[in-house]
């Protein structure tokens, strides 16, 4: 439960139809296995104590009494471990029979949740045997020799892990227009469990998967779905045991169909709570749900779920390509709209031959093509100075030529030297003044050229640089429209690579060389003609900083949790000391450099993280980092 993680399981036991004692043994065995594997919650299928396909045997007292005795066995066995169990069982009450989910924990029957929507169409005829639990207000009942609560809208709340609140709906309840989980989630449930018996037909598996995924996203919840499988009667139907564990639209675990067994994953409940707090339209309301409290032993959950090293970049190649196309189109649309509004037909870009300015040029080319404007209106300006290498300069020249832009070369060495003389700064003193004077001179050139041509200066800085403050205030920090402002460095690389995959010849070769060039501001003189100032050696690997940025800004994780999942994601790549070092650097710079983000130029939001002071990130420039830094430094 540390850091908000909870290990859970969904199980499909092999059952025998109308053999509760046998089925109870399988359920008990699986619960014990889940306990050994560190799970805190396990969900079993609908009516798994009897099997779902008993038909008219559900009208037999013999079967119903056998089911009650079997649940009593399960209750007794559960006292030897601390796993919360959700088990499907028929329950008789006031002359009616209900299809229920029993919540079992440490020898206690905490509650019985009835199925609300009883299907009676196509292959389903449950209404022949079962009554809907709709409008049954929670009431104390006796079952298995225990006093428990029976009724709809029950919430099972963990008193020592407040993020864990469990609600339940059963099979068909998910498929209707207004599922019970809507009420449960708005009442505070972060985990919805669904004991199910969903038969298999062609195409249904993918539909089921999409339904569970989208429903967990809509409710900002975790969803555990346990499906009936082997052993159910195949007289007319087939059950595949298609189990899922989902979280906010993401399938964390999925079983192989037509198998029995257990799937596991860790839920991140603190992440869900952050999302609900962030989205103030999420309907947290006091309603008529009844809370039943329980307690779980504290444990440090070992992580097995995967965390992408590049959370801004899709893992699937086809998805990555379509995402890259969409992103470049969005960037270009933002710029094209701004150009139309200002009646501007000229763009000015400082083209260094590096990744960021290359992407800015690509986006500008797309925008001009959208508007049907001659690419000669794109003025690519290369401004060599003390740190410029032959490699980057030649790449800039070739890019401008290949894209049909108008090229300008403005050597700023004389201007910068004159500036040093004016302010009394020695050329030999390679301090921050030495570096920033070059960046500000370049911005001056670009702004004045834009004024001269009636054009617009296109900003090249990316999201990662803004997070770290790796930009010169009123230098490359400033532009008239920043097309890369919400694109992190790891994504810049993929977008450029995507463009390279679509072109041929000299342009493809040049883009590939840009991708192979070390990231550098090139503000210090080169050594032996090679780049001497490599950004990632100074501020750390961008893949780490983008990872930190995503989890700190997008999900609000604390340093301890970010460090933990970074260790897991980058296992074998970076050691603990390296991760800690750059996490401390990220936090320190993120707070110190907010003043630069507080006056950013306009630029389009593209992804889920942006640092625009007019949009997603409103942080005072004088905020103190002590709380975050002290936790990171003491890891």
What class do helices, strands and sheet pairing give?
alpha/beta
CATH topology of the largest domain: Rossmann fold
Question: End-to-end distance, in Å?
Answer: 18 Å
Strand content: 15-25%
Number of domains: 2
Contiguous helical run count: 20
Taking pLDDT < 50 over at least 5 consecutive residues as the criterion, the unreliable ranges are: none
- What portion of residues is helical? 25-40%
Key phrases:
C-N_Hydrolase; seven-stranded mixed sheet; glutaminase activity; Rossmann fold; 635 residues; single chain; Nitrilase/N-carbamoyl-D-aminoacid amidohydrolase; ATP-binding; 2 domains; C-N_Hydrolase_sf
Set out the fold topology:
Blueprint: E1 5-12, H1 20-36, E2 41-43, H2 61-78, E3 84-93, E4 96-105, E5 108-114, E6 139-143, E7 146-150, E8 154-158, E9 165-168, H3 172-175, H4 180-186, E10 191-196, H5 204-218, E11 222-227, E12 244-247, E13 250-254, E14 261-268, H6 269-278, E15 290-294, H7 317-342, E16 347-350, H8 355-371, E17 378-382, H9 390-403, E18 406-409, H10 413-423, H11 432-453, E19 456-459, H12 463-468, E20 481-482, H13 489-502, H14 505-516, H15 535-538, H16 542-554, H17 559-569, H18 576-592, H19 594-597, H20 626-633
Helix pairs in contact: 1-2, 7-8, 8-9, 8-13, 9-14, 10-11, 13-14, 16-18, 17-18, 18-20
Catalytic activity: deamido-NAD(+) + L-glutamine + ATP + H2O = L-glutamate + AMP + diphosphate + NAD(+) + H(+)
InterPro entries: C-N_Hydrolase (IPR003010), C-N_Hydrolase_sf (IPR036526), Gln-dep_NAD_synthase (IPR014445), NAD+_synth_C (IPR041856), NAD/GMP_synthase (IPR022310), NAD_synthase (IPR003694), Rossmann-like_a/b/a_fold (IPR014729)
Pfam families: CN_hydrolase, NAD_synthase
